[in-house]
Amino acid sequence: MEVYGTTWQGDSEWNYEIIFDSKFTCIKAGTVSVASFIHSYGESLNYVNAALIEMIRLEAFHQLDDDGNGATLNEETETDDNLNHDQNNRVRASIAKVTNELRNEDIPVRTLSMVQRVCQGAIHPELDPIDYNMD
Asked: Quick one: pLDDT at residue 67?
């Protein structure tokens, strides 16, 4: 590896070890280490896939194919942030399924809490905590 003398926060080398859950919903373990510190995923670092809200809505409306790839939602579901009672129940069931699958994979409590917080954006888009940096 060539080093060009550039640094970020005074460190020129950052080492990442990342272990994802089976569906790439979040990082379940790993570290970021530099000369001055080590941070652990699930403790001081938490990563949740920014596409989680869309994946939950797709699953809730049965728009995933056999390989888990998304199809286009119907126009009403795609544009209407106000879910009716049946849609709300399906989204909540999808959130419960994701949460249970992650519990079975021993996701750290802090990461699971972040996943659950992000999932609320599938029901209430104004609560979506993810900064998509789309500006």
From this structure: 53
First to last CA, the chain: 34
Element (H, E) at 110: helix 109-123
Angle between helix axes 109-123 and 85-104 (nearest 10 degrees) is 160
Q: In the Cβ-directed half-sphere of 129, how many Cα atoms lie within 13 Å?
A: 12
Strand locations in the chain (E) = 15-20, 27-34, 37-40
pTM of the shown model: 0.75
Q: At 45, is the secondary structure helix, strand, or coil? A: strand
Helix (H, G, I), strand (E, B) or coil at 28: strand
Are 98 and 115 in contact by the 8 Å Cβ rule? The answer is: yes
* The predicted structure's pLDDT at residue 124: 87
